[in-house]
Specification:
Elements (H helix, E strand, L loop, with lengths): L2 E12 L2 E12 L3 E5 L6 H8 L7 E6 L2 E2 L4 H7 E4 L11 H11 L5 H12 L14 H13 L5 E5 L7 H16 L3 E6 L2 H4 L4 E6 L2 E7 L3 H5 L2 E6 L3 H9 L6 E5 L2 E6 L2 H13 L4 E5 L3 H10 L4 H11 L1
Parallel strand pairs: 3-8, 3-9, 6-7, 7-8
Antiparallel strand pairs: 1-2, 1-4, 4-5, 9-10, 11-13, 11-14, 12-13
Helix pairs in contact: 3-4, 3-5
Bound molecules: adenosine-5'-triphosphate.
Adenosine-5'-triphosphate binds next to helix 1 and helix 12.
InterPro entries: AAA+_ATPase, ABC_transporter-like_ATP-bd, ABC_transporter-like_CS, P-loop_NTPase
Keywords: ATP-binding, Nucleotide-binding
Family: Belongs to the ABC transporter superfamily.
């Protein structure tokens, strides 16, 4: 099986809200697939339908070769799911938590597996410490270790490093890369650019619909940003002025330069010509990268939950 997830038409409706709307996705084995999108856009609901925790209102397909409707229990056994909030027991010790998860999944050689996980984590000498006393970064490493105990073939990570410092995020991603290298497939929802750039493929979701999907390298093209880089004096003042000019949809600071982007080719190029003619700054055309595309997508995203509530309220 080369496709770990293959679903079409996935839909979930709560009341009058289609929180996931006709969602298709194919995830190849070993891929790191990023789910990007604003709050309330349906990422968690999608993940929960894929792993058999939630029954879709429409749609069909397979996850790990099992039917997402008829064989949800089989899927749950083989998936590692790390939820947004720390879901282990804060008043159990680190070892007790791992042992409990091992029992739940009926892990063979549980004692040895837990000991190995503690060693891998570097927590063997703190195994008796209560999980609730760990820092955010350590809690997240423990949660990852717990959801790996039963050797899942698919990892579903829902904003796994929210609120975790950059160093701990990097360590976490080193581990994810290592797992992916071993053939574990990873689906991860994220709001962070440094996580998005780690993904092989990206799907961008808003209002429950998938708007963009493809290999990370293709995303900037799909977003359709034209970008110029500008260097020179007083970039702060230039930034304020350029933002209001016709055809400009984004001005982002990259070190000692600005990246100025537009989507309407004609209007954008007219404005760039006007600015270049001023002769005060150095302008060079730039191939838009994932960073610009990510900033553009996330900046254009209102909180979908609030937006939906507005719509409901005003109707
Ligand atoms: N059990 C439920 N009952 C009613 N509405 C729900 C339920 N679960 C989710 N929703 C709504 O569905 C929408 C999508 O929520 P979901 O948590 O899937 O989004 P998300 O993209 O994961 O957001 P976030 O990044 O904030 O976690 C939201 O408007 C949410 O309020």
């Amino acid at each position: 099986m080369t496709e770990v997830i293959a679903v079409t038409g996935l839909t979930k409706i709560y009341g009058t809200k289609r929180v996931v709307d006709d969602f298709d996705i194919t995830v190849p084995r070993g891929a790191i697939y990023g789910f990007l999108g604003p709050n309330g856009s349906g990422k968690t609901t999608t993940i929960r339908m894929l792993c058999g925790l939630l029954t879709p209102d429409a749609g069909q397909g397979t996850c790990l070769g099992y039917d997402i409707r008829a064989q949800a229990d089989r899927i749950k056994e083989q998936v590692g799911y790390m939820t947004q909030k720390f879901s282990l027991y804060e008043d159990l010790s680190i070892r007790e938590n791992l042992d409990f998860i091992g029992r739940m999944y009926r892990v063979r050689d549980r004692g040895a597996r837990v000991a190995a996980a503690l060693d891998d984590l570097g927590l063997a000498n703190r195994a008796g410490q209560l999980a609730g006393t760990l820092s955010g970064g350590w809690k997240q490493r423990l949660a990852l270790a717990a959801c790996l105990l039963h050797d899942p073939k698919l990892l579903l990570l829902d904003e796994p490093t929210a609120g975790v410092d950059p160093k701990a995020r990097r360590d976490f991603w080193d581990e994810i890369r290592r797992l992916s290298g071993q053939g574990v497939t990873v689906l991860v929802s994220t709001h962070y650019m440094d996580e998005a750039v780690q993904c092989d493929r990206i799907a961008y979701i808003a209002y429950g619909k998938k708007l963009i999907d493809g290999p990370s390298a293709d995303i900037p093209k799909q977003v359709g940003l034209e970008t110029w880089r500008v260097e020179g004096p007083d970039l702060a003042a230039l930034e304020v002025r350029v933002k209001t000019m016709p055809g400009i949809v984004q001005v982002a600071r990259f070190g000692a330069s600005l990246h100025v982007s537009g989507t309407d080719k004609q209007a954008f190029e007219n404005t760039i010509e006007t600015l270049k003619a001023e002769g005060t700054h150095r302008w060079s055309e730039q191939v838009a990268g994932l960073e610009e595309a990510f900033i553009y997508l996330m900046a254009g995203s209102r909180d979908n939950f609030a937006a939906t509530e507005d719509k409901v309220g005003s109707s």
